[in-house]
Every structure is written in structure tokens, then in C-alpha cells.
Amino acid sequence: MPDPSPVPVPAPAPDHDPTSTPKLVPAPAPASAPDRDPAPTPMPAPVPASVPFLVRCLRLIIAVLLLAWLLLALWHAAKPLPPGTHVVSQTYRLPDSDVEFSYGALLHPASAVQGATAIEHAESLIVVDRSPLTADLADALLARKRLRPNVVMVVTTDPANEAFGGTDARVLNSLEQSGIIVVRARLDRLRDSNPLYSGLWRLLLGWWSDPFDERPGQVTPAAWARRQNFKADGRQLLAADDGSGGWTVMFAPAAGAAALTLRGALARAVIASELQIAAWSSDDDRLPAIPAAAGRGVGSIDTRFLTEGAVAGALLETLRAAARGDQIGIDVDNLSERRIIAEMLRAAARGVHLQVVLARNAEPNRAVAAELEAGGLGRIELRWRAAAAVPNPALLLVRHGADLWVNWGASGFTRRNLDDLNLAAGVELRMPARAAAARSMAGYFAQTWARAAADPSFADGSATAYWRYRFAEATGLSSF
Predict the structure, then answer these.
(1) Domain 65-282 identical in fold to domain 301-475
(2) Are 238 and 115 in contact (CB under 8 A)?
(3) What is the average pLDDT across 121-126?
(4) Which of 213, 362, 405, 408 lies at a 20 to 30 A Cα distance from 446?
(5) Phi and psi dihedrals of 404, rounded to 5?
């Protein structure tokens, strides 16, 4: 047999220290294929096709909501006025004996006395528009209803929650149970004075926020949100037949210390406006027919019934007609309407002397007072009275030669009260200065002026105060 192949003998290992630690030699990496590409970068998971669609839908919804908000704000800031608003009646002539202005102590308000007298004489119709409606006036209505069940009574009031100064719900319920027609004015039918907020409110909350469903005395979130629309029924009047074929109308808040009472045909214009408001606020089929219009009448006193924006027009006409040597007296809670302020400054420049009494309210009166003092050429005097819990009727009177021109009614000379935004009402009178009513109204203003305090330091002429009130007035974000 052939010899086996020789077996290779390994070379002897180098000297090795048995005590040393063996070195670990990493295994060689496997040889890669010469043409293999590097490992690809991981790609993100594909986006589902539904996500872009949802984003587009969300953007579309937001765009539609913004457009709806804008359209609502624009529409409700300029929409047509409902019937019975912005009224300018014809001029009625009344004898001196048919115009009475009374004022008294706060403990016995003149308006309460005159109102009770008018209610006691009514035989066919009583129309009341008061906010709030006091318990005394409600008691007088209930007493007359018990004595004369056939007398039709219509009571219109602001639907404000009782917590915000509205009428106690128990008072309104007692009137309704006795057969009196109670109308909560649908103020959302009016134009919005705070359009940016009100447009959003109408879009998101207005369709389910009903003031008639709120619990009185509680400031719920819905009531608070509705309150920020700053809408109000500022009409303060009472009209009734006198039991002898004539009519009586009174302009004053129920708790006011002064009241203007007129007898004659002017009351028909007042009742017509109030019944139109009641019709679109309540749809009550028990509402009576509007009384027939009457003639101009005879006498020495010219009167007109004015509401909302028509009040502003009459005020501007009166101020523009004032001439050198005339005297103007103004007593108002808030003064901020720019056209009226401008006409007051122009009247002072013509040589008219003005006495202005403002409520001691920080806004807007402090900034406006500084503006009048700075631009009045020393012919505008300012005094301050305490702010009233219930708005006072505003008074503007002009001594023009032998006549006295008077505007009495709307509580504030502000954009909200005089620009067809809130319900407001007043009366204009042109009468001889010797008439009894003219002397009473002049005496009332003289008393108000004497009781008011001169306080030049209360006026605020800073640019911050001026532009803050101007911004609040222009946007409607103010509460005045």
C-alpha cells in the first residue's frame, strides 16, 4: 500500500505566558457582494387619504362660520326698523291748560301721583311702557282692573332678568292673571348696537337663549351673555283715556321725581306706536285697534312725539337754531353722541351760553366734560349730580327770545339711545316762556343746577380717557 500523505505539522506557537489574559479577536465580517447597494432609508408611513379631506372640511366650516358671523353683524346693524319705531308725529297744538309739568320729593315721586291719577280716570284703554314696572304702579292697574274689568290694559316692559334691574316676575304674573295684556319687548328685533358681539351671539347662542325662560333673580351664563348685547327698552310713558272722550299721556319713569303730562290728541300717536310694538313683540290677538288720528288742535303750545333716532334729529334742530344771546340748559345722565357734542360747541362759538348737568359717571362724561370745557370758549358751564339707580329723563331747554323750546324724554344723549338701537321716546315742546309749564320746567332745571356740584377736577382731559370712550362708543362695546 502506498504511504499515507504527510500531515502538515503546525508551526510552533510563540512563547506564551500562561498567566496572561487571552486577547479576543473579532471575527472577520463576511465579505459583501461586490455589486450590492447600501441599505435604503426607512420611509414614513403613508398619510391616509381621509386626513386632507378632513382638513379641507374643517377649513370650509370655519370659513362659513366667519362669513355667517360677518353677514349677521352687518344685517342686524342696518336692517329695517320694525313698525312703531323712529316715529315723528305731526305737530299738535295744545292750550296751556293741557300741559302740566310737576316735580316733587323723591319720597313722593311726581310721576307716581300723576300716573295713579291717569289710571283712576280711564274707562276704555290704558297703555303703559315702563322698565322696571314698580309694584305701586302694578297695584294701581290691578285696582282699576277690579273696578272696571272692561278697561283694556297693555303693559310693555323690558324683558331683562330681575337680577339686572328688570321687573319682578311675580308682578308681571299677577297682571297677566288679572287679564292685563303683558308684553315683553322683543328687543332682538331692533338693530344691534354691539354688532361684533351680537353677530356671534345670534349665531351661537341667540337661537336658544330666551329671556322668558330664565329664572328671575339669578345671573345665569345665558342671561349674562344676552345682557352683553346692551339692548334696552328705555321708553318711560303712560297713556290712557280720561273717561270723558279725551286722552292723557305722561312721560316719566315710575320712580321719577318729575313728570310731564299732556292732554289731547298727542296721546293717540303715542298709543299707535306702542300698540305696533306690542303686536310684533307678542302676537296677542287681544290687542285693541289703534285709535283714529285727530286734528292738529288749537292753543299756544306746539308738541311732537318723537322716538329713537327721531329724538336725535329734533335735538340737533334745536341746537342749530339757538342764536347769540340764547341760553341752553341740559340735564342728562350720559352725553357721548358726537353730533350733539359738535352742535353744542358750535352754539358756544355763536355766542350761546350753555349750562350742562351730567351724572357723575366715569365714562363717557369725564372725557366729554374736558372736551366741552376746552372748546367751549368759556361759554359752557358744567356741574355734576349723583348717578341715579334708575335712568332719569333727559332735559334740554333753550330760552329763545320770548319762547322756551324743550326736549324731554330719552334718558341719555348717546349713540345707543339716539341712533335707532334701543327703544326710546320723548316729546318736543315749543311754548311761550310765560306759560305755566314753561315756568315749571325752567324752575325744575334751575333747582337741578343749584343742587349739582361744580367739580372741574372730575373732568379727564387725558388722551387715554378720550380715545377709550370714543372707541367704546363707535364699536358698541360700551354699556352707556
Answers:
(1) yes
(2) yes
(3) 95
(4) 362
(5) -125, 125
Taking alpha carbons only, the member of 220, 218, 215, 191 closest to residue 205 is 220
Lowest mean pLDDT of 41-45, 59-63, 342-346, 442-446, name the range: 41-45
Per-residue model confidence (pLDDT) at position 478: 82
Mean of the per-residue pLDDT values for the chain?
Answer: 86
| Mean pLDDT on 448-474 | 93
- What pLDDT is attached to residue 170? 85
C-alpha span between 341 and 361 (Å, rounded): 17
pLDDT at 63: 92
Q: What pLDDT digit, counting tens, does each position of 3-23 carry?
A: 444 444 444 444 444 444 444
Domain spans, the chain: 65-282, 301-475
Average confidence (pLDDT) over 36-52? 59
The predicted pLDDT at position 49 comes to 55
The CATH architecture to which 65-282 belongs is 2-Layer Sandwich (3.30)
> From CA 28, how far away is CA 13, in angstroms rounded?
22
Selected from 3.30.870.10, 2.60.120.10, 1.10.10.10, 3.40.50.12650, the CATH number assigned to the domain covering 301-475 reads 3.30.870.10
Q: How much is the pLDDT for 474? A: 86
Q: Which three three-digit cell numbers place residue 279? A: 303686536
